[in-house]
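Entry 14. Ran structure prediction on the chain below.
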Amino acid sequence: MQGENIQSARATLLLFLKSLPAGCLFNIVSFGSTFTLLFPQGSREYNETTLAEACALQENMNANMGGTEILQPFKSIYSQPPKTGYSRQVLLISDGSVWNVAQVTQLVGRHAHETRVFAVGIGHGASTALIHGVARAGGDDLRWSSSRINFSTK
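Output, structure tokens:
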């Protein structure tokens, strides 16, 4: 991600961060050629302190992590079972294309019974196959357009 795309991704992330309900659990996975977690020990409760940490990360996000490798971050997410009493939902924000769309969508589909995945494509470089495939496999069929994002679901 670079230029306008990283700005749009940061704005999208901030919108979702500010929309989370108090008391839910959350984490942020930044990805490129590698990936990092905001909370490496696992998702944390959403409160003023953790929101401030997330906003600090969001504010300083740069397009400096290399290509779009999403399979390993998803494997990391799925390696931990959902917390008892909570539903797990993942929001994927991407502006890139990946070479292994089929592997990613198959992995998301295998975990659809425990994790719902929403996907947002940013800019003209976003892979429609990835965004549509992940959304469909993860339980949410989003309408996506390169000129704007429609959040209506079927």
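The longest helix spans residues 3-19. Will compare against last week's run tomorrow.
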